[in-house]
Amino acid sequence: MKNFITRLFTSFLILAIFAVMVIASFFDTLFEFTVSLISMMCIYEAINAIGFAKSKRFMIPSLIYAFLVPLSFLLTEQLNKSPYYLIIILTFIYMISFIIVSMLNFTKIKFNDAATIMFVSLVITCFLSNIILLRKINEHGLFYMILVIVCFSWATDVFAYLTGMAFGKHRFAPNISPKKTIEGSVGGTLVSVAVTYAALAIYKSVSGTDYNLPLALLYALICSVVGQIGDLAFSYIKRSYGIKDFGNLLPGHGGVLDRLDSLIFLSPFFYMLITFKEFLY
Predict the structure, then answer these.
(1) Using one digit for the tens of pLDDT, what is the confidence trace for 196-252?
(2) Domain residue spans in the chain?
(3) Closest residue by Cα to residue 199 from 259, 150, 249
(4) Which of 99, 139, 93 has its CA nearest to residue 115?
(5) First CA to last CA across the chain, in angstroms?
(6) pTM for the complete prediction?
């Protein structure tokens, strides 16, 4: 019970952090800096967790990359270029420099460790940065961002845990994430869809915007599943290195990366869905 109360309290603390992101999104520069800071925190936790926190030759380039990519959206707007224009350039420079440093330090870092550092740096930074594009997509960008953060990510995580704790019996990935159950996964997804429905109703009453309900709920269903895949992907890395959490900043939840792993995967995926076909009109 004590652990449950701790996790519940921290869950609302995480929701408060999400609220800060929403508020920051009203100010372009502040929002980019916020995403940069979060990306850097996640990458630091990941590199620290696999044992390379003191290796500046690997840590510093990754943190610089995490800092610059979200901020590149500001410059691409001024240059009237594709939002991915500078990201491609920065990613190429980062990968080349990281590979050279890894080869020069062949005896100090194994290939699988170097590949893991590069993987988490690229995925965390590039994937999470898509939330900036989602926020700016059109007049509904703020609502889309809230859906991703609250309805798809937070609601799924919290209620998958609660449902699994109450009814979970069948584990579906015991070697990767021993506590995750089929019941919890289904419960988290269903609650995510229900919360999305409520959010749509509230948004319609406030803004007068109508929506395609079947398409919106389908997106919610798919996104909840994708978010859980993101969670499992980072759990796979943790189990490969024999660690329980990436950090301990959030009591009962681990580190920042442990709580944002689903959002990291959701940001580009939902942006892709919305640019393909919107459900608001």
Answers:
(1) 999 999 999 999 999 999 999 999 999 999 999 999 999 999 999 988 888 777 666
(2) 2-276
(3) 150
(4) 99
(5) 45
(6) 0.89
